Amino acid sequence: MRLRNERLRTGHILLFASPKDQRENFSIFITVEDLSQFEAVLKITEGFQRIFESLEDNRVFKTYSIADVGKVKETVPNINEDRMLRFEPDELLLASRQMNEALARAVLKKLIQRDSIIFPRVRTGGMATGTNFYDRSEEVRRIWQAVQSGKNILLKAPRRYGKSSLLHHIAAAPPEGWCACYVDLQGGKSPDDFIYLILKGVCQQDRFKECLPEHLATKEPWSCSEMVKEGLFREERATIRKDWKGYGERLFLSLTGASERIILLLDEVSFLIEDMLVEKGNKVDEVADLLSWFALIRSQTNPISYVLSGSEHLPAFLDAYGVDGQLQDMTTEHLDLFNTACAEEFISLIMAGQGIIINAEEINRILSLLGNPIPYFLQLVLDTLISDCKRDGSLSAESMEEIYYQKLLGPEKKRYFESVYQQVERYERYKTGARRGAESMLSELASRDAVSKRDLETLWISETGSASKLDMMLEILRDDFYVIPEPGDFATMSSKLLRDWWQRHVLAIEANN
Amino acid sequence: MLSNDFVLSHLSFLGCADVPDLTKADTAFIREHLPPPYNAPERYEEYILPRIQTHDVLCTATKASTAKLLEPLIRRHHHRFFCRIDDSHQQKSAASIVEKIRRSQEKKAGPGEPEPIQYDIANFSEKMPDLARFRIVCNFLHDVELVENAIEQSQEFIEKFNINKTSSITLRPRLRKSGERSVKFTLEYRARPGLFLEIQVMTQLQEAWDKKDHFLVYEKRRLNPEKDEENFPDYLDSKMFAMSELLFISDQYFDLLRSSEEDPASLEGYHEIEK
Question: With a threshold of 0.90, does the pTM exceed it?
Answer without folding.
Answer: no
